[in-house]
């Protein structure tokens, strides 16, 4: 049961990494320092105040950079692989000792890295549409929603992880259906 709970927390935190790379790590570090979260062996560094300060600085720069026109699109090229790595690390940091080291890393890479990458690719697509349709004017609004979403998702993933997995899955299903509907509408329009 601990393994499933750990994976649920990992999925929620990984999804948050897809929105902003450093926000979930900062939330985990803050929670570890306050004693609300105990990272797995090998990830005790998350509970170090200096790491928390460094993550806070990185978070401020990351969030701020997404408000600069065209830098936000450029930053997505770096954030995509970084989100995969952060999703893997966050999932591994909450994995339980019930699995072997190999199984833990495999689950972290597949579940955590995969979830973070999927969410990040969705934000890249949304920012691309926003840039193409509004010339980037709506991008700050999108960026605000992303960092707030990352923050809320990170906190709720630590508090109610199973609910967050359900929410992440429902949003994923909705997004896939919405994209399919848009694709069919575009195909229908081009046929006319």
Descriptive tags:
192 residues, mainly alpha, 7 helices, globular, transmembrane helix, transmembrane
Compile the SSE list and pairings.
Layout: H1 2-19, H2 22-33, H3 49-65, H4 71-94, H5 101-134, H6 139-159, H7 161-191
Helix pairs in contact: 1-2, 1-4, 1-5, 1-6, 1-7, 2-3, 2-6, 4-5, 6-7
What is the structure about, briefly put?
By secondary structure, the protein is mostly helical. The chain contains 7 helices and no strands.
Describe the structure.
- With 192 residues, this protein is mainly alpha-helical.
- The protein has one domain.
- It has seven helices and no strands.
- The chain is globular, with a radius of gyration of 17 Å.
- The model has no long low-confidence stretch (mean pLDDT 87).
Share of residues in strands: under 5%
Secondary-structure content class = mainly alpha
Task: Give the overall pLDDT as a whole number.
Answer: 87
Q: What Rg do the Cα atoms give?
A: 17 Å
- Which overall shape is indicated by the principal axes computed on the Cα atoms? globular
């Amino acid at each position: 049961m601990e393994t499933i709970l750990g994976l649920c927390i990992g999925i929620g935190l990984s999804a948050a990494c897809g929105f902003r790379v450093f926000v979930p790590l900062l939330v985990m570090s803050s929670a570890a320092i306050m004693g609300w979260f105990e990272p797995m062996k090998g990830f005790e560094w998350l509970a170090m105040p200096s790491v928390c300060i460094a993550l806070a600085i990185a978070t401020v720069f990351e969030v701020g950079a997404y408000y600069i026109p065209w830098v936000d699109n450029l930053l997505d090229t770096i954030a995509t692989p970084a989100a995969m790595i952060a999703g893997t690390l966050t999932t591994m940091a909450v994995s339980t000792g019930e699995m072997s080291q190999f199984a833990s890393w495999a689950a972290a890479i597949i579940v955590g890295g995969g979830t973070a990458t999927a969410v990040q690719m969705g934000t890249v697509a949304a920012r691309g549409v926003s840039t193409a349709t509004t010339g980037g004017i709506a991008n700050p609004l999108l960026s605000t929603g992303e960092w707030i979403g990352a923050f809320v998702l990170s906190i709720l993933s630590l508090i109610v992880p199973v609910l967050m997995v359900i929410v992440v899955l429902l949003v994923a299903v909705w997004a896939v259906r919405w994209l399919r509907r848009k694709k069919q509408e575009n195909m229908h329009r081009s046929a006319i």
